[in-house]
What we know:
This protein is 49% helix and 14% strand.
Amino acid sequence: MxxxxxxxxxxxxKVKHLIITNSGHTTQDASPREFYVAFCAMLQEEISIxxxxxxxxxxxxxxxxxxxxxxxxxxxxxxxxxxxxxxxKELIKAVLAKLNRNFNDIAICENEASLGNGGLGRLSxxxxxxxxxxxxxxxxxxxxYQYGIFEQEIWEGVQVERPDCWLLHVNPWEKRRDxxxxxxxxxxxxxxxxxxxxxxxxxxxxxxxxxxxxxxxPIIGYEQPPNFSVxxxxxxxxxxxxxxxxxxxxxxxxxxxAAENTCLTDVLYPNDNHELGKRIRLKQxxxxxxxxxxxxxxxxxxxxxxxxxxxxxVRIQINDTHPTLIIAELMRTLTKNHNFSWENAWETxxxxxxxxxxxxxxxxxxxxxxxxxxTLLPRQYKIIQKLNYDFCTQVRKKWPGDExxxxxxxxxxxxxxxxxxxxILGSHKINGVSKLHGxxxxxxxxxxxxxxFPEKFxxxxxxxxxxxxxxxxxxxxxxxxxxxxxxxxxTDFPQIEKLKPFASDPKSQLEFLSIKKKNKQNLLSYLSEQxxxxxxxxxxxxxxxxxxxDALFDVHIKRFHEYKRQLMNILHLIMISQELLxxxxxxxxxxxxxxxxxxxxxxxxxxxxxxNLLCAVAHxxxxxxxxxxxxxxxxxxxxxxxxxxxxxxxxxxxEQISTAGWEASGTGNMKLAINGALTMGTEDGANIEMRExxxxxWWPFGFGSSAKENQLPYNPSDIYxxxxxxxxxxxxxxxxxxxxxxxxxxxxxxxxxxxxxxDPFRILKDLRSYYETQxxxxxxxxxxxxxxxxxxxxxxxxxxxxxxxxxxxxxxKIWDIQPCPxxxxxxxxxxxxxxxxDACRVRVQQLKKI
Length: 850
């Protein structure tokens, strides 16, 4: 029996054993989900050895460690990704063959973890993948949302939000760790006291205690066995602790109040258009930072015994403003619980903490009502007050009389606590996430702070992990790359530049086009079978219309937001339809298949109106015989990572059309580019750096105003009145062309007025440039070999846009940490100890000698 066959037989026997012990019946009778859970349990045993060895190594070597604190993670399905990173694909296929099971049937049993909303959550997950692959010492912290943000359905063009019950079934990738549960305190009455240093601290009476229970998720690095790293992502939940349910309030009839703390981790970003939502969201954010900080300090004390080396050994990355309260909580904890002087605590805080700003959008630069913070977090509020007083006093000494400067830089202003200001003050580094974004932060958004602390500001361009978004999502293209340049690109993405000589090779071009066609067919199969169209009752009446694989697959997949400019894309498609109808006998050479996907925030009316318009236009086009064969729009319901993995490999054209100066970075642009889509892009976010890397020769579809031009005065009615095709397209919003009912008529009329009267995101200003550039795209699409040459050159230039590169920059520029792979002696010891108690076990890593 050969090694692979022997390994597969041993692991198959283990799966049978686990099915019997976990399900109470044999393998033959197990449902796909029962089989999936048992199979994951078998994999977890393999993973746990390296997980233990990785953590034991970090403890033994006492290294400086990074801690990523994020409200969002969007990992996608872990089953296939973990198998890929373990280097066990062929072995797992052999095991499944012995058990007469199909890989895809098992993989789809996994409910996708709904721990994030979009780009921020996906970026956090990519960061963890790169941290593990590059074997840096790190931990991740987040919240275990019971329902995620929401599951999206479209009922006759209207977004309906349903609970995303991703935890309806057991999640085999997590381990509950009650031993590390912690208490978090809200409200109460602060009592003045002093620590041994003589500094003011606050005790707390009559507080509200909430118990946070941790769930641990392994993050597996891509590495050849046996020395792969497994990092820990710890997610906090209040759902499972009975102590959080207040029975006395329940019995008194206050049902909502009784369950509030149990529900803190129910939903990612509760709608904060009302007081309850605001309070829950603030409590969520403090739950994350308080529980995580307690865990960080507990672990540090276990390793070092005291906190004298805390500033040297601990790095905390504040991922956007949501975890900023960790600064106030760290100050409180060091001064009150560990007798640090105020000055020493502040120096420690600034040394440990760093802040990533992800956007200049006002709603993301959080400001909390001062009274709400004082009520819910009285001790932390007093610390913020003192920090602000000390800071403003220092600035007044340097610039006496400049009260306008004080107003601009103050943490507390007009009854609001500005969290970004607190994050900047309490951190040693503040980074933007692209070159342009970093510049805007320094010259506009945080100009005053940059004047005060120029050494703090930098940027680290975002990225994506090629292992998830190419190796896993597009195996045929990945095989093509490996055949041409070898496998080094998987862990060293800059090696992808070796692909460049193949771009001009006709044979390679045809191979690329063949792979793209196959991926298009995969997407079409999904759309025609699994993407529903619903009536206004939510009943499925059909599935998505499709065009053939020869069509131009034009992909716009983002959360719905005004600055993402889905509305500009829709107007462009309306202009194409009007062209078709004006000369019905003239057939279009290029058939365009416009694919949209993304969610609108529950309380975001304008975004929902734009989504409603998109669906109405799609319906109208499909009903018109002179349009539907040449122009089809499809909306993919309930966008998530798994759906992105189907859409992205099939894309020809990548819509990255945000208003220049508004997109911090973007990572969808990178994922689409590495899969061979050409970018239709403004000079915004990481588009700029992508264009510089790819060069103008291979970046044919840049368009629109620059960020600097977008600061100039603008009157949208001038364009509306003087560009007849644009006027005709915009008029369809008010003349009933697409509205199917009075509600849609009102919504579309609002959009008409929005465009003509204000147009804050300069849609009409860029629409003519966008329209003409789309014409260029269609002309180029008629030359498939040239299109393929440009696409391959785009792929070859994407080396700088891996999160592996981003994480190396964080490690060197911000955290100053070094890789720390599992110590081989520790790994051997853990393996031996485990093997002694599991006679039937054979390690995948040891037996993988194929």
